Amino acid sequence: MKYREPAMERYFSSLPPAVKSYINRSGVEISTYGELMQIGEHFRHSMSAGHGEKS
């Protein structure tokens, strides 16, 4: 996924591959850095707790 804001692109690039993949496949429309952070952190914590998909 590409973002217009460099900060959003950097944050997305810093996420684990499984989280990036999940966001990309979800089809969710993310329009702000805050939204991206909330979604990214939610999935990062869910997956690290063993509740998400494994890659």
Give the tags.
mainly alpha, 0% strand
Give a structural overview.
64% of the residues lie in helices and 0% in strands. Helix 1 runs parallel beside helix 3 (33-48) and helix 2 packs across helix 3. It is mainly α and 55 residues long. The radius of gyration is 11 Å and the shape is globular.
Outline the secondary-structure elements:
Blueprint: H1 6-14, H2 17-26, H3 33-48
Helix pairs in contact: 1-3, 2-3
Work out the radius of gyration: 11 Å
The largest sheet, given as strand count, sense and whether it forms a barrel, is: none
Q: State the end-to-end distance.
A: 18 Å
Task: Give the strand content.
Answer: under 5%
Number of helices: 3
Helix content: 55-70%
Average pLDDT level: 86
Class computed from helices, strands and strand pairing: mainly alpha
- H-E order: HHH
Total E-strand runs = 0
- Shape, per Cα inertia axes: globular
Instruction: List segments where confidence is low: pLDDT < 50 over at least 5 consecutive residues.
Output: none
How would you concisely characterize the structure shown here?
It contains 3 helices and no strands. It has helices at 6-14, 17-26, 33-48.
